[in-house]
Amino acid sequence: MRYASITDRLAHLGSGRWALHITARRMKAEGEDVIELTIGEPDVAPDKALLDEAARAMHAGRTRYSNGRGEPNTLKALVAKYAKRRPGVTERNFLCFPGTQSALYCVMTGLVGAGDGVLVGDPLYATYEGVIASTGAHMIPVPLRPENRFHMQTEDLERAITPEARVLLLNTPHNPTGAVLTAAEIAEIGEICRKHDLWIVCDEVYEQLIFDGTKFASPFDMAELAERTIVVASISKSHAAPGFRSGWAAGPAEFCDKLLPVSEIMLFGVQPFIADMTALALSEHFETADVMRENYARRVKIVEQALAGSNLVKPVAPEGGMFILLDVAATGLGGEEFAWELLKQEKVAVMPGTSFGDQAAGFLRISLTVPEDVLETAITRIGDLAGRIASQREAPLNVG
Ligand SMILES: Cc1ncc(COP(=O)(O)O)c(C=O)c1O
């Protein structure tokens, strides 16, 4: 049978990136005792009030069709949230989606097509390349360098821009590196986007998970970038509710109006009972994000302390998010090979850096979403494997 070209473009960009995670899950299902540090699944439950609200709304008949833009209560809550960041926003600046992922997919569909280029920092979140490729556009990687703590540098951005470039896809706080862009960095990046007339799409799904000493900043909050910035985000991380699939896009009213039919045709609206729960999540303060933030910051310290004496495995301290990168290049193995050996020999599942682009090839991404004792055991095993690999490498030299 014949299929559309999108199936070829995405053939190697789907779950292949998660092959190690899928293998680890299969091993666990077969009874093996695997420590899983792969995906970013919050390890706390959503607040009970939110679960109660979703159930109440369902029982109250909020199970009918919605509309393409979003339920009025969610839109009102979004206006209130974002008006603190950009005074004057209205409901016309928002569209609701089932999660950041579908928001991003729809937004990209509205901005680029075949022949266009999308600039994105490398390392990058594992689905970005597929989202870009789905539109027929191509990805233009901008290297994010460990020596700059993976913060995008303007000279790297300038160097990457081609005549086809239409969009810069930013992610702050960043997955997998944990980098959080400063207001000054965003202003400089924004200046380049203005010069080259680029849209800025900013994935802010980790907005609430920023560690002490670092401040959140966004192009959305800068008046001079308002006409070209679209934010995508959700309650998946902030409220530990990824399964509810509730997110949004925030951008210029004209853009949202233009994207509305795309969203309507794609989704036919979101789920009203989840919209009610989302409206509540956005309107009141819940402690879920505070708890996660404290947990993850503490676990970063645990990893750093455990590896303090190692010259084979070096952590890169994140400024936010749910992950920490470990540089294992000094072992002589790439991140991909190391991760598979780790699963095989030590029963610890981590994401190989290669799942997030070329720049992360020498790294492992560790999820911080497990209890401390489990994390400590995993780090000990990573250190043990690194030691064995390094000594095996050195052994022939010693003999010779
Ligand atoms: C950077 C980034 N963007 C988007 C997503 C997906 O978020 P959502 O559950 O809102 O679709 C994730 C999930 O891990 C992520 O890390």
Our count of domains comes out at 2
Q: Which range does the strand content fall in?
A: 5-15%
Largest sheet: 7 strands, mixed
- Helical residues, percent: 40-55%
- Would you identify the CATH H-level superfamily of the largest domain? Type I PLP-dependent aspartate aminotransferase-like (Major domain)
The tally of beta strands, per DSSP, is 12
In the CATH scheme, the class of the largest domain would be Alpha Beta
Give the overall shape, derived from the CA principal axes. globular
| Low-pLDDT runs | none
The quaternary state of the protein chains shown equals single chain
Mean pLDDT: 96
Helix and strand pattern: HHEHHEHEHEHEHEEEHHHEEHEEH
Class by alpha and beta content:
alpha/beta
Can you tell me the CATH architecture of the largest domain?
A: 3-Layer(aba) Sandwich
Distance linking N and C termini: 59 Å
The number of helical runs is 13
CATH fold assignment of the largest domain = Aspartate Aminotransferase, domain 2
**Small molecules bound in the structure, each named once:** pyridoxal-5'-phosphate
